[in-house]
Each structure stands twice: as structure tokens, then as C-alpha cells.
Specification:
This protein is an alpha+beta fold. It is built from 5 helices and 2 strands. Helix 1 packs across helix 5.
Length: 137
């Protein structure tokens, strides 16, 4: 979530993200599945399995103009999504509605700090389905 020392361990957005992962586990969902997809592709019989990981900034902190714009879009998407955590996901963790709302408010405020270089890893997997080899000669 952060490759430099700009985000403290007690960062409110990081805490929200970690709590969301625990909440989703209560429903049988794994938020880290995308990182392990290669093993599943191999187990399914795919060959030449490759992954490209891209760091996508959360917020307009990147130096590159295009990545700043992408970061702004990512931040907007995150801000639109996080209210959904205040319902059933956080209830599954035993959080009160007040505690959930405070957690969300602190995370929203934290996202306004451009000095913190938060990002998400996006995983792009590609592989080949095995099949008969074709000989063109």
C-alpha cells in the first residue's frame, strides 16, 4: 500500500483497508486472491502463466501527469466505495454503526493528505490454454 515511509502503521486508511479484508473473510471472501491467481491458473491446466503488477496511486501524488490523473480517479472510486463497508461488513466484525462511521470519516480525511503515497497493486494475469501444437512447416 505504500513503498516509502510516508504512511505510518496507524494510517486510518490502512486500518480501514485491513478491517475490510477481515470483514470480507467473515463472508468467505479473500481480498488477496488476485495475488495468488497464478497458482490457480496452473492448477487449472494453463501454461505460460505470467503476471504484470502495476502500482496504481490512490490520490494525485504521483510525479507523472498520467499517473496523477489515474490516482485521482482511483481516489474517487475509493471514496465512492468505502461507505458500503459501514453496513454488513463492519457489522460482521461487531463494530457499532458509530464506530464504523468514525472509521470511515478518519479514512476519508487521511486520503486528502497528498504527502502520503498510497497505492493499490493491480494484477494483470495472462496465460495460454493448452492445446494441440500447430506446425506450419
Amino acid at each position: 500500500m505504500c513503498a516509502d515511509d510516508t504512511m505510518p502503521d496507524n494510517d486510518p486508511f490502512k486500518l480501514l483497508y485491513d478491517r475490510a479484508g477481515k470483514a470480507y473473510q467473515k463472508f468467505g471472501l479473500d481480498t488477496s486472491l488476485t495475488a495468488d491467481l497464478g497458482r490457480l491458473l496452473i492448477d487449472a491446466g494453463f501454461e505460460n502463466v505470467h503476471c504484470r503488477i502495476m502500482k496504481v496511486p490512490i490520490g494525485p501524488w504521483a510525479k507523472d501527469k498520467t499517473m496523477r490523473l489515474i490516482g485521482l480517479y482511483q481516489k474517487t472510486a475509493v471514496l465512492e466505495f468505502i461507505p458500503t463497508l459501514a453496513g454488513r461488513p463492519f457489522e460482521a466484525l461487531g463494530m457499532s454503526s458509530v464506530e464504523a462511521e468514525v472509521t470511515l470519516a478518519l479514512a476519508r480525511t487521511a486520503l486528502e493528505d497528498k504527502k502520503v503515497h498510497r497505492y493499490f497493486n493491480y494484477y494483470f494475469w495472462y496465460a495460454q490454454k493448452p492445446g494441440p501444437s500447430v506446425n506450419f512447416m
